[in-house]
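Researcher: I'd like a candidate sequence for this fold, 221 residues long. If you have to choose between options at a position, lean toward the conservative one.
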């Protein structure tokens, strides 16, 4: 009886840890070398606090997106580079948190760092925040490139989540090196099946994503 009880207890614990909806995987299990800094798990983001639905520094994506991302990482490693993930699957409750924050026009503590030249009341109108996010469909991620020798991120001209034309792919008033770094990221992601959102150099979605227009809300843990 003790042996049977232990098996049942083990299965219960196993099933309650790391269980994801069908079609999703933990990216770090598939790509151990990938670098991760989920910004919405910390206070280092435009909201200025930990965002609802983020409970662990783990990356979750669809199996298809992860498969292609692994090809990207393998190619980058040959050049001494790595992907660094700022965000990937994003629960709908986190998007709702952004929406509540955006409605509070008096909360501008992070304005200077993340949206110095955009009025907070215009963040929705100008497309920086929405009530639905492709991230919640599980095949969209926010990333940069990192030098594996120096452990430093490549200079992309603006910080992650900087709201303004400076973050647009077409923005020209940055250095030649910054342009080259952006182009490197764009090229390798496009090569492996991801398309970019033109107003955010860091934002990519898998072409032919499996859960398009489905918005999940399970917690990241």
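Model: Candidate sequence:
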């Amino acid at each position: 009886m003790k042996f049977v009880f232990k098996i049942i207890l083990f299965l219960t614990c196993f099933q309650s840890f790391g269980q994801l909806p069908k079609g999703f995987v933990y990216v770090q299990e598939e790509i151990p070398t990938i670098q991760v800094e989920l910004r919405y798990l910390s206070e280092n983001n435009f909201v200025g606090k930990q965002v609802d639905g983020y409970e662990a520094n783990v990356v979750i994506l669809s199996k298809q997106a992860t498969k292609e991302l692994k090809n990207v990482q393998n190619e980058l490693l040959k050049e001494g580079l790595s992907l660094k993930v700022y965000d990937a699957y994003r629960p709908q409750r986190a998007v709702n948190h952004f929406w509540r924050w955006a409605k509070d026009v008096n909360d501008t503590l992070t304005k200077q760092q993340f949206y110095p030249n955009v009025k907070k009341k215009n963040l929705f109108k100008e497309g920086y925040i929405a009530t639905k996010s492709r991230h919640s469909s599980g095949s969209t991620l926010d990333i940069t490139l990192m030098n594996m020798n120096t452990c430093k991120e490549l200079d992309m001209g603006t910080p992650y989540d900087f709201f303004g034309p400076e973050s647009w792919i077409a923005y020209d008033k940055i250095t030649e090196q910054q342009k080259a770094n952006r182009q490197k990221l764009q090229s390798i992601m496009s090569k492996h099946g991801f398309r970019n959102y033109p107003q955010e150099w860091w934002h990519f979605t898998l072409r032919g994503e499996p859960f398009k227009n489905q918005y999940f809300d399970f917690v990241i843990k």
